[in-house]
Task: structure prediction
Amino acid sequence: MQANTTRGFLWSDVETRTLLNIWGDQDIQAALDGNFRNSFVYRDISRRLGAMGFERTPEQCRVRIKSLKRQFLLTKEGNLRNNGQYHKIFKFYDTMERILSNRPAIDPQEFIDGGAGGEEAGDGMEEDGEDAPDVYNESKGECPYPAETEVKLEYPTVPIPIPVKVTVGNNSPSIRPHNSCQSANNLSAKTIKRTRKRRTNFPMEKLMEQFLDQSAQAEENFYRVEEQRLQAEDRRREAEHTRELHMLQMLGQMFSSISSVRSAGTPSKMASPPVYYGASPSCTRGQSGQVRCPSPQKDCFAHQSQLLNPDPHPLVLDRYYSLGSASHRGMEGDILSLIKNIVPPLTSKKHKGQDGRIGIIGGCQDYTGAPYFAAISALKVGADLSHVFCTKDAAPVIKSYSPELIVHPVLDSPNALEEIEKWLPRLHGLVVGPGLGREAALLKTAKEVIEKTKVREIPIVIDADGLWLVSQQPSVIQGYQKGILTPNFMEFTRLYESLHHEPMDNTDHKRNVMQLSGAMGNITLVLKGEQDLISDGSKVMVCSVEGSGRRCGGQGDLLSGSLGVLAHWAHSASTAGTLRSMNPSVVAAFGACALTRQCNSQAFQHHGRSTTTSDMIQEIGPAFKKLFES
Ligand SMILES: NC(=O)C1=CN([C@@H]2O[C@H](COP(=O)(O)OP(=O)(O)OC[C@H]3O[C@@H](n4cnc5c(N)ncnc54)[C@H](OP(=O)(O)O)[C@@H]3O)[C@@H](O)[C@H]2O)[C@@H](O)CC1
Ligand SMILES: Nc1ncnc2c1ncn2[C@@H]1O[C@H](COP(=O)(O)OP(=O)(O)OP(=O)(O)O)[C@@H](O)[C@H]1O
Result:
C-alpha cells in the first residue's frame, strides 16, 4: 500500500490513474449510470482509493472526476476540429475515452452547470488548475508539482459562485457561474504562461488558455474573499471564546463571594427565599444573643433592594439549598468551591497562631480519645495551635497521645472558669463536648465557658456531651449565630424533644432539622447520618459526599474538631467580605461534613473493616487537599 501523500488538493498522476482505474470499474460505472444522486458511489470510490493508500474525500473524488471529464470533453472537441491532434495534450485522454466510450454520451452542460444533482453543486474548478499542467507535461508522465505540496485551504462546504468570463466560439465573451475552491499555485500559473506562448497556433488551445487563466484569476479572487471570511470567522470565534471565559470567571467570582444569608440579620438574610416548610421563627437572635424580630417594613425594604440590585448567584445557591436534595450534586461542587475561598493562604508572612487557635472543652476520666481526636483534627485541618481543657486525670493520657496538643488539666479544678477564661482572648474557635462526660460540675463549667465565649463572638461548636447540656438548657446557645450544633441521631432526638416537648416524627428529617434550628434561634445545626443535613432554620443543605459503611466511634469528634477551624475561617472570611450572602456557619459545617466523609472513604479504601478514627485522621491532609485545594 502506498504512503498517503495525497493530502492537499493536488493530484499526482499516479493518484489520478488509480482514481480512474477505480472509477472505470464496471460496477462503479453501472452505479453512476443509473443514479441521479451518486454520493454513495463516490463514497465507495473514496474508500477504494483509501485502500490503495490515497486519502481523498468522496467530494474530492467527485470533483476530480468532473474536472477530468471536462478536460476530456474539451480535448475531444479540439480533436474533432483539429484532426485528432488534441488528444495528445490531455494525458488521460485515452483512459477516459476507454471508460466513457462504454457510457452514454456526455452532456457538455453537465460540466458547465455543475452537474445534475444538487449535491454536485460544488464543482471544483480548482482541479482544472492542476489539470492544465498535465497538458504540457505529458511526456514526463508525472505531476508537475510535488505531490506532497500542501495546500492548506480546504474545499469550502458551501461553494461561493464567482462569475468567470468564458470565451465561447469566436471570442464572444459570456459570463457563467464558477464554483471554485482552490487557487492554482504560482508554479501552475507560471507553467500556464510559458506554455501559452508556445502553443498559440491552436485556436482551441487559446480558448483553453484563456479559460484557465480566468479560472486562476477567479480562484485568486475567491480565495482572497474566502481568506477574509475565515479571518473574520476566527476573530468571531476568538471573541466568543474570550466572552465565555470572562463569563466563567465572573461566575467563579460570584460563587466565591456568595455570602452569609443569615448572619447577624443582614438585609440579604431577610431577602432570602421562602422558608422550607415555613418553619422559620418570627424572632431570631443576633450574634451576641440579642433577640431580633424582623419587621415587615424591613423585610419589604430588603426585598425591594434585592429586586433593584439582584445578585443572581446567591439565588441559584439558595435554590439548591432550599431544595435540600441529595440529587443536587452540583450544589456540593458549588459549596466546596466556596470553602476553597475561606481557606487562608499559606504564606511566609504569617506567624504561629494566625491560621487558628482552637480550644476543646472535654476530656475526662472515661473519655480521653474524643478530645484528642477533635484537637488533632483541628491541627490537621490547618489550625496552628490546639488546646484541650480537660480534667486533671485525663490530661496526662491525652498528652501521651500527642506532643502536638497543648493540654490544660483544669476542667475539674475549683477555679476552672478562671483558668479557661484567661485563654479565651487567644482562641479563634471553641469546641465543647467531645469526651466531656455528664458530670454536673463539668457541665456547669462548660456552660459558663460558653457564655464567656459568646461575649467574645468566637465561633462555638457543640457536640456530644455538650449537646446533652444544650438539651437540658437550650438557652445556653439559643440564637447565637456563631454557634453550631452537631448532633448524631440520638442527640438530635433528645434535643428535639427537649425543645418541642413532644416526640419527634421520624418521617421527615429535613423538616425536623429546620424546625429544631428555628426553635434554637436559627443557629446552624448538623444532623449527622447517612446524609448530613445542615440547616440554619430557613433551608436545608444536604451533604452526601461518599463515605463508607464503617461507623467507628470518634468520627463525630473528627468532624467537630475540623469544624472548629473551618468556622473560624468562614467567619473571618465573612467579616473580610469574602463570603457574602451565605451563612459562614453553614459553609463551614458543610466543609467539615464533606471532609469527614471523604476521610472515611479514603481510610476505608486502605483499611476496610479495620478502619479506625486514627486512620481517618491520617487522611485529613490528602482529603482536604482533594476537596478544597485541587
Ligand atoms: N474514643 C473516645 O474516647 C470516644 C468518646 N466518645 C465520647 O463518648 C461520650 C458519649 O458519646 P455517645 O455518642 O456514646 O453518647 P450518646 O450520644 O448518648 O449515645 C449513646 C447511645 O446512643 C445511641 N446512638 C448513638 N448514635 C446513634 C445513631 N446515630 N443512631 C441511633 N442511635 C445512636 C447508641 O445506643 P445503642 O445503639 O448502643 O443502644 C449509643 O450507645 C461523648 O463524650 C463522646 O464524645 C465518642 O466520641 C466516641 C469516641
Ligand atoms: N450512615 C452513614 N453513612 C455515611 N456517613 C455517616 C453515616 N452516619 C454517620 N456518618 C458520618 O460520620 C460522621 C460522624 O457521624 P456519627 O453519627 O458517627 O457521629 P457521632 O456519633 O457523634 O460520632 P462519635 O463517635 O464521635 O460520637 C459524620 O460526618 C457523618 O456524616
Q: What stands out?
A: The chain has 24 helices and 15 strands. Residues 464, 488, 528-530, 532, 547, 551, 553-557, 559, 593, 596-597 surround adenosine-5'-triphosphate (ligand 2) (CB under 6 Å). The CA atoms of residues 258 and 314 lie 6 Å apart. Confidence is low (pLDDT under 50) at residues 1-7, 105-192, 259-320, 322-328.
